[in-house]
């Protein structure tokens, strides 16, 4: 099982050429399969199953945004802005500066409530940037998909968060700016070209916070299929079926998704 959803070919991603020494990987989507193969993994053995970590999302969607806001402690009548931070430099400093500007600009706006989900590594090494008391920080274990579903807009450089955000139709501003002077920023271009206008960029932050856009559902579904495959609560069954297939000694690359 691929432990994450690679959407960018990073220089430090060579380990993806043989994930934990495995010959084959069950991956989130066709885009992730291509990323792994570019890092040296055998393309035919990157098997798209979707991720079981998404299997709770249909139930979250059924609950509705109001109930999800209650669960994460958000104000029901305010626009919830979720900032998701990162630990990796130089991206961390770049993003923290943007988050600081957002907080200073909107923290006293009664119609907007800012929530922060720090990266687990930041929490562990105590490198979370300082936030004022008006900002709600979720340091402890929290239901991530409830947090995402409760949001009216997400602002983050975390590419794997794109997948659940797309599945729940939550507007997402991407802080991976290929025009920045950050090292390796040019590597983000293929992903950004795939996402197109369905994902906001740094220049659109203020406008998207004030007026979160709505996009054609068909287009969102098309993009999600490439990066997340399916979100029907059955990806765990697909992985299990792939494992059963492999245990019978059948060629892994011949497995077909017959789960309905």
Instruction: Profile the largest sheet.
Output: 5 strands, parallel
The CATH architecture of the largest domain would be: 3-Layer(aba) Sandwich
The domain count comes to 2
- Secondary-structure-based class equals alpha/beta
Distinctive features:
alpha/beta, 37% helix, 10% strand, 2 domains, 11 helices, Rossmann fold, 260 residues, five-stranded parallel β-sheet
Task: Give a written overview of the molecule.
The protein is an alpha/beta fold and 260 residues long. Helices cover 37% and strands 10% of the residues. The chain has helices at 30-38, 57-63, 65-72, 91-106, 120-125, 144-150, 162-167, 189-195, 205-210, 217-228, 235-247, and strands spanning 25-27, 46-48, 79-84, 112-117, 136-137, 153-156, 172-174. The model has no long low-confidence stretch (mean pLDDT 91).
Summarize the structure.
By secondary structure, the protein is of the alpha/beta class. The protein contains 11 helices and 7 strands.
Set out the fold topology.
Elements: E1 25-27, H1 30-38, E2 46-48, H2 57-63, H3 65-72, E3 79-84, H4 91-106, E4 112-117, H5 120-125, E5 136-137, H6 144-150, E6 153-156, H7 162-167, E7 172-174, H8 189-195, H9 205-210, H10 217-228, H11 235-247
Helix pairs in contact: 3-6
């Amino acid at each position: 099982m691929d432990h994450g959803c690679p959407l960018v070919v990073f220089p430090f991603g060579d380990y993806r050429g043989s994930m934990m020494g495995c010959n084959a990987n069950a991956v989130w989507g066709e885009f992730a399969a291509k990323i792994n193969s570019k890092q040296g993994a055998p393309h035919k053995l990157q098997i798209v199953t979707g991720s079981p970590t998404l299997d709770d999302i249909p139930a979250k969607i059924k609950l509705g945004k109001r109930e999800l806001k209650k669960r994460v402690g958000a104000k029901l009548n305010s626009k919830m802005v979720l900032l998701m931070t990162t630990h990796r430099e130089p991206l961390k400093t770049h993003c923290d500066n943007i988050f600081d500007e957002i907080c200073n600009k909107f923290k006293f706006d009664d119609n907007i409530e800012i929530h922060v989900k720090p990266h687990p590594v930041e929490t562990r090494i105590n490198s979370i940037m300082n936030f004022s008391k008006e900002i709600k920080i979720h340091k402890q274990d929290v239901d991530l998909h409830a947090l995402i579903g409760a949001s009216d807009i997400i602002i983050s450089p975390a590419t794997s968060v794109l997948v659940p955000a797309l599945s729940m139709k939550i507007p997402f501003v991407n802080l991976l700016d290929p025009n920045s002077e950050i090292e390796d920023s040019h590597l983000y271009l293929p992903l950004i070209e795939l996402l197109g206008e369905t994902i906001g960029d740094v220049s659109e932050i203020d406008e998207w916070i004030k007026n979160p856009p709505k996009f054609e559902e068909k287009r969102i579904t098309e993009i999600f299929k490439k990066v997340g495959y399916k979100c029907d609560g059955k990806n765990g069954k697909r992985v299990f079926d792939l494992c059963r297939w492999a245990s019978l000694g059948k060629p892994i690359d011949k497995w077909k998704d017959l789960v309905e």
